[in-house]
Task: structure prediction
Amino acid sequence: MRGSRHNWASSSLRLLCLALPLALRIALPGVAQAEGGRELWVACQDAGKVATLGVQELDAPRLVDVPAGPANLIYSQALDRVITVHSEAGLLALIDPKTRAIEKQIDVGGRPFGIASDAKGRLFVGDWNADVVRVYDPQTFKLLKEIAVGKSPAHIVFLPVAKRIVVANRESGTVSFIDPERLEVVLELPSGEGSFAIGRAANDDLIAVANVRDGTVTLIQPEPPSLYEKVRTGSLPYGAAFTPGTKEVFVVNQQSGDVRMITTRPIRDKGSVKVGRYPEGIAITPDGNLAFVANWASGDVSVIDVAARKELRRVKVCEGPRALALVPADKLE
Result:
């Protein structure tokens, strides 16, 4: 499973990452600022920590201790909690974003990786080895149902408008569409070799599936589910996110160390932006001004000016950053 793939990192790389100073408080002059009060949360798998940074002025990060090996994280609006996924330990950790304290740990077993939360707060957690998505009650966190999907379920997203849970199945090269009311798969579509990450447009009219092995992104119209277009992006695409309004998709290419920008209506390649080493997770602010990319091997986050299509800064966080989530203003202290 890719959740433990980071054993390749050499000791010299780790020492280099530790030796570099943390970014000091920085502003971003000359560019449109992201909407105020949001905070960026970054899961650092190698460090066993989560870093938090304000998006208006990127301070040196505040670090939150979590169980070892956080491979993924999300913010659940329904639960008002940040949830980290610990694949090696078979755990989830629920964190209160106001206090930054772990409120609860849930032993889900297996090899969890992908996770989504629906409007009711139910958690949909993929088990990479068992080829299932398990659904957990939002109050008791007891298992409600186990749903068979494709092989090696990776990223999972909830589509609130289309009312579907979508799962990228890496080894099957498919995406599974789950009806959250019936808790069953209603359709499985081929997407590409090594389907891994999913980005969703704000109104759910498109999703983007990053296919690691064939270096493409597949654009799918969720309702009714149908293939819209498949576009070559770069080497090892491991992340995808849409800009609001413009329907532009940003695809993170891990091996080529860049972010490819593609307009979706019509399909046009708008070039790429170089970021840090082995990038993966990406998040774009709701106002569309800034994009953040987690650079796994360089231990930092790239800040991209969306309109100017350029990298503004790299902010040191902690070792092995993989996944990102934005927490809204009214959920913070």
